[in-house]
Amino acid sequence: MGSSSSTHDQGPRSAPKTYSAPALERGFNVIELLAQAPRGLTASEIAAGLELSIGEIFRIIVVMERRRWLNKDPETDQYSVNPRILEIVFRATPAEELTVMAGPHMRELADKVDQSCHLVMPNGRRGLVVLRQQNPGDIAFVVRLGADLDLVRSCSGQVLLAFGDEAWIADVLDADTALSHKDRAALMNRLKLVRSRGFEMRPSSRTNGVTDISYPIFGLGGRVVAALTIPFMTRIDGSQVFDEYAAQAELALIAKRISTELGWFERDERIMPLSADGRVGAGAAKSKPRKSRLKDNFPA
Questions:
Q1: What pLDDT digit, counting tens, does each position of 67-77 carry?
Q2: Which of 28, 51, 79, 281 has its CA 20 to 30 Å from the CA of residue 203?
Q3: DSSP H or E segment with residue 251
Q4: pTM score, two decimals?
Q5: Confidence band, pLDDT 50/70/90 cuts, at residue 93
Q6: Domain range annotation of the chain
Q7: C-alpha span between 222 and 263 (Å, rounded)
Q8: What is the per-residue pLDDT for 94?
Q9: Residue pLDDT, tens place only, 40-57
Q10: Are 129 and 145 a contacting pair, CB within 8 Å?
Q11: Residue (of 238, 222, 242, 218) closest to 230 by Cα position
């Protein structure tokens, strides 16, 4: 009579295999290193930064340049990341669909209010500017395409956090070692206000004369997929046709239109204030949006 065995009879399972591809990993390391040096690095500087010899890295760099992942400046011999990488990422992620959908609406918005706007998507624990639209006027204030944003301290980032998944919010805040307990409590109060009124509007934490206005973009099921933001630049000669509140109203319409085209319905969204620890409270009432600007009591 044959004996049968079950998983209980077998010894402990071996750990999952880990595979190594040194050349591929070095290629990724090159990109990550160059991301910290937007002006570029020479091959020897790249080797030094990765603690490798020229021989260990040179062929990898040459192949990456041939495949158009890197650009080489013929005058300085410095390598930089080719913007083609951003294009590939867009095509391989939901950013492609979102940017195609949002592009015409963002052009309409920028033309109408004569202010630039940009679209920010969550990218792990950071935010990524995946699309921007410059206004048609002679003077513009724009955010760089592909800019890496701090979710905790930027206006767009706080909108994403305010409407984000509970576990993701906790992960982002836990990873921010510079965030004190007091600052975290202040931030959570801020996110409650943003979530209750449905948008954020506050003086820029980095630039005088700029008011950041940001609305969430929702997809199917009410999941936040991006933040659409106007860095509203006030002109001292008063020549702008739209003030910040009129621009905010136009931004609200455009954000809702993009969300609707992505499959969002108003019934999908259940706005519920966040508790002090970042959790969504049950049975909380939805507050009416307020037009007046909130005092920015979170240190940015």
A1: 999 999 999 99
A2: 281
A3: helix 244-261
A4: 0.63
A5: low
A6: 22-82, 93-268
A7: 9
A8: 65
A9: 999 999 999 999 999 889
A10: yes
A11: 242
Length of the chain: 300
290: pLDDT strictly greater than 60: no
Q: Which residues contact 232 (CB under 8 A, 6 or more apart)?
A: 115, 210, 211, 212, 213, 244, 247
Structural fold of domain 22-82: Arc Repressor Mutant, subunit A (1.10.10)
Q: How confident is the model at residue 31 (pLDDT cuts 50, 70, 90)?
A: very high
Look at domain 93-268 and name its CATH class.
alpha beta
Q: At what angle do helices 84-92 and 95-113 cross, to 10 degrees?
A: 110
The amino acid present at 2, given as its one-letter code, is G
Distance CA 208, CA 106 (A): 24
Q: What is the DSSP string of 111-125?
A: HHHT--EEEEEEETT
The CA distance from 293 to 246, in Å, is 13
The tokens 């937007």 sit on which residue? 38
